[in-house]
Amino acid sequence: MSASRASSKNVSTSMNPVPVIERQATAVTGGLPVAGVEPFSTCDWPGRLVATVFVAGCPWRCGYCHNAGIQSRDAGTLDWDTVRRRLAPRAGFLDGVVFSGGEPTLAPQLPDWMDEMRALGFGIGLHTAGIYPDRLARVAKRADWIGLDVKAAPGGIDAVTRVPGSEARVWRALDIVQASGTPFECRTTLDPGCMNAEDLYRLADTLAARGIRQVALQLGRQADGLPLSDPARWPGAAVLDYWRERFVSFSWREA
Q: What range(s) does the Radical SAM core domain occupy (predicted)?
């Protein structure tokens, strides 16, 4: 999914980089499910102070991914019991827990994790690229808010993910999220190597025609943190103004 930079020492949030991540000092092998926990984030759920749980594993290979270090399931270093013990004392202080990744719906335990966090008093947020629509359908109503990555305009999603068949999954996932009734945001990370201004106009029209109200565009970044484009030149003010006019809520994120 659309992600900020990660390394063997840290994992950043999906939409913006964050300074500190709690992880075990020594990596543990054996397919542990969680790659890291950000104890305090203000950017993973708009308007909320949350902790973010990064689930290890993602089958897609988006060129701008800044959590490439946790694409493998072997990137997990934390078992769920450890995560729960870390988060439980923050109940009542934090607004919620966001499950991110990687791709959190990859974990079959996700419904149970969400239920456990809700029982502790946390609101539940979810970041997903819609890779597993059937699994998303099982958890969409468990969430209080969903951030769904819509990788590109119709016809362009497979070029971003580098995995054939991705596109059908994304649009089906959007159907599921809309039907769930859970508040959500559609987010797109901009990669000039895979899309142009006309694609962004088409994507805005596509989402608006589906009744989407809350959207965000994020500037893609290289692995070294440098932006993939100069936003003043691309996508440019005209594209951003078009998106602002088309939606009730529009966010532009450069970081």
A: 45-255
pTM: 0.88
**Amino acid letter, residue 9:** K
Domain boundaries, the chain: 34-253
Question: Rounded CA gap, 73 and 212, in Å?
Answer: 33
Crossing angle of helices 110-119/80-87, nearest 10°? 20
| Per-position pLDDT tens, the chain of length 255 | 433 333 333 333 344 332 233 333 333 334 589 999 999 999 999 999 999 999 999 999 999 997 888 998 888 999 999 999 999 999 999 999 999 999 999 999 999 999 999 999 999 999 999 999 999 999 999 999 999 999 999 999 999 999 999 999 999 999 999 999 999 999 999 999 999 999 999 999 999 999 999 999 999 888 777 888 888 889 999 999 999 999 999 999 885
